Amino acid sequence: MDDVTTGDNTGSLVPMVADEDFSPVFKKSAERVSKRVGMTANNVRAMANSPELGATMRQFLDDVWDHGDLPKPMKALIRHKVSNINACLYCSAHQVKVMMSQGVSQEKIDNMYDYRTHPAFSDKERAILAYAEALTIDAGAIQPDVIADFMAHTNDQERVEVAIVAASMGLLNRLNDGLRVPLEEPMLEIASTITFDKD
Does residue 87 come out as left (phi exceeding 0), alpha (psi in the -120 to 50 range) or beta? Predict the structure, then answer.
């Protein structure tokens, strides 16, 4: 196991599986993620404890990222907003890195809490992030004004994709926090800058 990426896993509910111990069915999914993020992430190592279902989950998450028409920078903004609401430090740190890799401006990254009013965000981004936030907090009680704004700025396909991206990120937040997946060493500096929404 690569000690650069394992971090402190003493609190993890499962071991971080070494690359050489990945099952054949899991290896393909693991390689897909590694190419994208530049390392074997600990959430991949954790999921490797269930080779078939873990590979199915990784395939789903990777397809949500790779497919559809919603731009990846927008997906990254949604994923960060959801992770922050769910107070998932692991995912929040990873999404900051993803936003940077996708060319999201530092101004947006630094002002995510003020997305409703900060000039760096477009009206469409505001509508999408407000919907993703409401969906994450209580999907059955999204306020009519949030829905109206979301409807006004998106088409049918975008609405479905925003909901899938937000909901799948919430699932990943719960998996990573629920299994106590530790941050990788290279992510610790980013994690030290994370603060969570207070609303």
Answer: left
> Do 18 and 46 form a contact (C-beta atoms < 8 A)?
no
Residue 172 CA neighbour count, 13 Å, CB half: 29
Q: How many Å apart are CA 36 and CA 158, to the nearest integer?
A: 23
Query: Containing domain of residue 61, as a range?
Result: 3-66
Residue 196's pLDDT band, with cuts at 50, 70 and 90, is: confident
Mean pLDDT of the 147-167 span: 98
Instruction: Please state the pTM of the whole predicted model.
Output: 0.91
Question: Which residue pairs, CB below 8 angstroms and at least 24 apart, start in 32-35?
Answer: 32/58, 32/62, 33/58, 33/62
Give yes or no: residues 82 and 132 share one domain: yes
The CA dihedral of 3, 28, 179, 11, to the nearest 10 degrees, is -10
Task: Report whether pLDDT(2) > 50.
Answer: no
Q: What's residue 32's pLDDT?
A: 83
How many domains is the chain partitioned into structurally? 2
Burial 89-98 (b: 16+ CB within 10 A, else e): bbbbbbbbeb
Shared-domain flag, residues 80 and 174: yes
Indicate the residue among 66, 91, 112 that finishes a domain: 66
